[in-house]
Each structure stands twice: as structure tokens, then as C-alpha cells.
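Chapter review: from sequence to fold.
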Amino acid sequence: SAVDLAVQVFDKVQELQPCEPQSYLDGALVRFWKAHKSILKRQNDEENNGSDFICNFEELRSDITKCQRLLSHVLTHKWAERFTEVEWPALILLHCVADLVKDLNDENISNIDGLGPSSLPPEWPISDLAPFQSFADAPTPETSTSTTQTNTQEQGLLLRCNKFDLALMVWLGWDTDKTDIDLHVKEPSGNEVYYNNRNSDIGGNLSRDFTQGYGPEVYMLKDVGGEEKAGTYHIYAKYFASHQDSLLTGATSAVLWTFEKKRCGKNKKSIEFHNIRLDMHKEKKEVGTIHLV
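The C-alpha cell string follows.
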């Protein structure tokens, strides 16, 4: 399938560009999308008795585990200065993966014939994230093994937000290095969140402005508060500048993926992917709309 081909391509990109965190983010993102689609198929197939899902469960578990490891790699490694704060979107996506595993647990997936309670990967990759903590050092001689294990678990969980509950997320990444594309989100009130106005009164928050290539730039809105979040959100991408050595670089392709929490229906979340082509400097193009109820 096209998704399987994308996994192979992004894995190859990681080999070619191991010094760029976006290589790992893209690999994690395509696996998250693949896992989400697999679960969505199960939820929407009312006649499915579980057998088809069991056949694909090992692949699903492998995709989720690999996704967690790729994101943990972004979080636990030091990157070039132009990628400063790339950990922020990686941490957001890791929380989305945790919610995906939690949804599987809530469906009592382990009660299906052929699966056991230990079949699912953990919601949070504690052991993979331990190096992130500055105090995750080797135990001293007087430190017991049990104490070390407890500290490692606590250190990994320090990165997790227990009340991570998104109403909306918008993720914009692009494929051209040394290029500045800006994400703009106009909220129902008319307030526009962008690099010069990163926080809004209703809780909207935009990640760092990446001006030297790839992004991603992420808008996040948590599901807290009242009715002021309801309404239509207009999403724009602006091709602000290219810092390439040659003007022959041409157009830039971008990927936009949106995450929307649903208030009704079988599916708790709506996740959509869109490809965007930007070829005019300073062009600001509307690339999507989302209506929250």
C-alpha cells in the first residue's frame, strides 16, 4: 500500500539524514497514521469478529512501538541549533500515541480471543525516555537496584501530562530545507494565532517559528473551558521566505494533518492528512477549515 511504501521511504531518509530530527518525526507520523487507520477500520466494521484484527495485531503493535522509539529518539538527542524546540511537537505526538494505546485498552482489546493483557505496548515508553532526564545517571554503589528502577519510571513519567486532552491540533511540515513556512490559525472570534501572536485567550498555542527548514509548526487547543471554543477555525499556510542558495529550488510541498475531537459518534477523533503545494513567496493560502461544536 501507499502507507507501507511511505514507511520504507522515511526509514531510508533516516539512514541518509540521521542528523535531522524531522527524519524521525516523519517516520513516527506515518506509523501513527497507519495505526490509527487500522483501529478505525476495526471500529467501523460492525461485522468484524476480531479475527482479521488479530491477524494484523502484531504489525499494529510493531508500528506503535517503533513510533514511540522514533519520538523518544527526537526527545533524547541533541540537535543543531536551528532545530531548537523540535522536541515540543515530538512530545505532542507521543501523547497522541499514548491516547491511541489507551483507546485500545478502553475497548478491552486484550479480551479478544488470541490476545492477552500483555499484548499491547505500554502507553508511555518510560525506558526509552530515561536518558532525557539530566539526573538519570548510573546508580551509585549505595543505591539499590529497586530504587534505581523506581527513579527511572518516575523520570520517564515526568514528561507526561496526565490531563492531555486536545480539542484540536494542526500540524504543518514541509520538504524543503532552509525555507520558512508559517502556520496561521484564525479562531472563531477572528483572532489569528501565528508566530507574532502565539497564545490566544481561549487557550490556543503555537509552537516555535521554524525559519530554516522542515518545521513542523503546531497549533494546539486543549479541551478545557466553555463554549468560546465552538465555531469555525480557518487554517492558512504562508510561504514566508526561502533561504536556499539557488532560486531554482522552486515550489515547496507541505503536509497538513489535523486532529479534531468528536463529541458524538463511534469515532472519538477525526484525523485528516492533506498535501499542499506552495510556489509563491509571501503567498498566504487557506489550506483547511475545521468546525468545532
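Two observations follow directly from the output. The two ends are 34 Å apart (CA to CA). The chain has six helices and nine strands.
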